[in-house]
Structures are given as structure tokens and as C-alpha cells.
Amino acid sequence: MRVIMGITAVTVGKKIPLRRCAGCSQMLPKPGLFRIARSGNEVSVDLTFKSPGRGAYVCRNGECIIKAAKNRGLERSLKGASKEIYEELRMILEEADE
């Protein structure tokens, strides 16, 4: 077992990459986050983690989405992200809860 910046990562088997959440600024395993990608002038939610372009990550909970909107985390990371992306994230989160 290995500790990276206060987060325990098990190194048995496949390594799980860590990414920083734009809302809470914690380093978390990539599968537990939403990826928002900017390719050219288009910003979209990337659920497959495979879209080309620059990416930013947000936790899969409502609190972090609100924090990211409040501190403009995605706008800072992606230069051109609009406020509509937060609404899209909330809708995806609500659909997943149903």
C-alpha cells in the first residue's frame, strides 16, 4: 500500500490514476469523477473519459458541482467554459440518482 498526498492507493494489480476535483480540490480516483473536456471552442461533459482536448474533473456529487460553480473552477481550468455546463452536470447527476 502506498500513500500519495494523504490518499491511500493500493498498488496491487492495475494502478488507478488520481485527478484533482475543480470543486473541492481533493485528489480522487479518476473513475469517481466527471470529466469536462474542451476541444477547440466546445466544452462538453465527457462520460467516456476519451474525448480529445483539455480536461477538468469534478466529483460526482452535488456539493462539489456547487463549489466548482461558486469558485469558477471549470472556467479557470478550461478557459471558455460557460455556466450551462454546471446545469448539464446537475441533470446527469439527477438522472443517475433515479
Structure commentary:
The protein has helices at residues 62-70, 73-78, 84-97; strands at 2-4, 7-9, 18-20, 27-29, 33-39, 42-46, 54-59. With 98 residues, the chain is an alpha+beta fold. The chain has a single domain (20-97), classed as 2-Layer Sandwich (Hypothetical Cytosolic Protein, Chain: A). The strands form three sheets. It has a three-stranded antiparallel beta sheet. α1 (62-70) packs antiparallel against α3. The mean pLDDT is 87.
CATH architecture: 2-Layer Sandwich
User: How many strand units?
Assistant: 7
> For the CA atoms, what is the radius of gyration?
14 Å
Content-based structural category:
alpha+beta
- Can you tell me the residue ranges where pLDDT is under 50 for at least 5 consecutive residues? none
Helix content, binned percent: 25-40%
- The number of helical segments is 3
Number of self-contained structural domains: 1
Q: How far do the termini sit from each other? A: 36 Å
Principal-axis shape equals globular
According to CATH, what is the class? Alpha Beta
Relative strand content: 25-35%
Query: What's the helix-strand series?
Result: EEEEEEEHHH
CATH fold description: Hypothetical Cytosolic Protein, Chain: A
| Major sheet strand order | 6-5-7
Overall pLDDT: 87
Largest sheet: 3 strands, antiparallel
CATH homologous superfamily title? YlxR-like
